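To assess whether the prediction recovers the assembly geometry, we first specified each molecular entity separately, as shown.
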Amino acid sequence: MDSDDDYFEAEDESSLVEDEGRVSDDEGFLGDTMIVPDDPLGSGSKEEDVYPFVCLSAEQIVELMLEILNEVNDIVNIPHTTLRILLAHFNWDKELLLEKYYEYDGNPEQIFKDAHVISPFKLKSTCKTKGQSSRTDAECEICCSSYSRSFMTGLNCGHIFCKGCWSQYLRTKIMDEGMSQTIPCPAYKCEIIVDDEIVMCLISEKKVRMKYQHLMSNSFVECNSLLKWCPAPDCHHVIKVEYRDRQPVKCQCGRVFCFECSESWHDPVLCLHLKKWLKKCDDDSETSNWISANTKECPKCQVTIEKDGGCNHVICRSQTCKHEFCWVCLGPWDPHGASWYNCNRYNADDAKKARDVQQRSREMLQRYLFYCNRYMNHLQSLKFESKLYALVKRKMEEMQQLNMSWIEVQFLKKAVDVLCECRQTLMYTYVFAFFLNRNNQLLIFEDNQADMEKATETLSEYLERDITTASIREIKQKVQDKYRYCDSRRNVLLNHVHEGYDKDWWDYLDL
Amino acid sequence: MTVPRRITKETTRLISEPVPGIVAVPFEHNARYFQVSMCGPKDSPFEGGSFKLELSLPEDYPMAPPIVRFLTKIYHPNVGKMGRIRLDILKDKWSPALQMQTVLLSIQALLSAPNPDDPLQNDIAQIWKDDEELAIKTAIEWTRKYACGD
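The predicted structure of the complete assembly is given in tokenized form:
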């Protein structure tokens, strides 16, 4: 699918130059996109190389685990089950495991002890001493019933229980407590860890086996910094990268997300700021609107006060404050008392100071609301994405009735693709700007942003229009020009931000 | 509702071979609920007191630990206001190989050796650390006041 898009871009590159005369610095960029066909958004920044990643299915993760197991086993040669526990103990860091393993000079007993497994080298001496007793029946300590020895089993620590209790125990640990690599022997104070072989042997219920395997893969993925689950709901794919970075990756299911923070791809804003922003939005987006409209802060203790009636003589109810002030001018009430409601003394110092503080906090709020509203606006528009695709699909069919070929109408789909990408970028530009102090580079950024926003809205408008036979060619030309322009403006904006990151242009506010 | 063999066996043992100082009686209509009375251990501030507890066995016992709670008020850093007990084997260190009897014995041992470093009641633990004499005095007082009735 990517190669298709690139084909169009390559073919139509010349037409770009005609558009609105702002192309000189954009031209080089399109050329670059063609060299980067695997970029999941079709628009990485131009200097950077392709960010290499692969998408793995659940089975492939298991294979990957096996691969690592085999690799290490070639060197240390201990049973797979034991090795798996050791690797889990070292968070699947095989180098660390090997380093520690040989650090003890060929005597890795301490490692086995730390990882809560019985050393395979000691096994022959300790194992099965219990099993040797001559009685044929034994009592299971858990259910207090006697069973033949063949129905009793245990780990290498020698504690044995009946198979029924074992499977119930494992089931509880797996299903209720979500444990996989750290389930200990059921005996009191025994910390020897249950290996995967015995679990698979004792658990027959499919649901539990599946959950166990999933938990195993999960702990493998979680402790491997080069692997990330796709954040889409019900998607069980994993993205594997070669080095960790803030880069977009695209899962087989279609979700594009940031490898660093797993949020939707959020260029140009940094993960850190996005996280702060999302938290802020969660906390107070709706509430702050109301607060802004209906309340004021006590000029002394800054507690938020709603006046729901009564006169302008307000007494702060905060137990430690009790400040009396005028609701209108926010100055202390005392001078008002003499001749009632006499706050025409505009320059009274106290009142002015109080208003300043008030104003600053209002300004902060206003500023946040400004960015928040714009962010939300694009977010809302994006939510109609699927609707828009459906609408465009219908239009494309209509156009094919009007003697256009299938390939000729593909530009409409491409236009929606670009529109959505632009909206997403625009959305995050407001988060980006929210955290910045004013400087000249920010002014340039805002110009870029305004330009891109204007173009994006126009493109959106074009896509809503009706198509008639007469206008069809003309519309196609217009739409194509516009989406190319949008795309190029988007790249200009992103490159400018990236350059700023490299050159330390951005001056962050302490929010 | 049938009672698992293990519970029946444990109950029989609790009654036939009781541990000195601990009496556990199953509720008449509920074999999973026990009323326990525990004597304060010798040489502890709880000596001479008789403490009532309740013990109930959850549905998935012995995979899940029994739920035990003091009914008698007690001045102890590891026992909460509502009688909850902070003891590792009642939580994450539980093993299905443990039994009611072992649990009750551990609780008795906890009375002998309060652990203010892992408290359930911070204020009591603080006093226990700062002024052990005062803490012990208070514990003795409480024992006399709440645990020495009929």
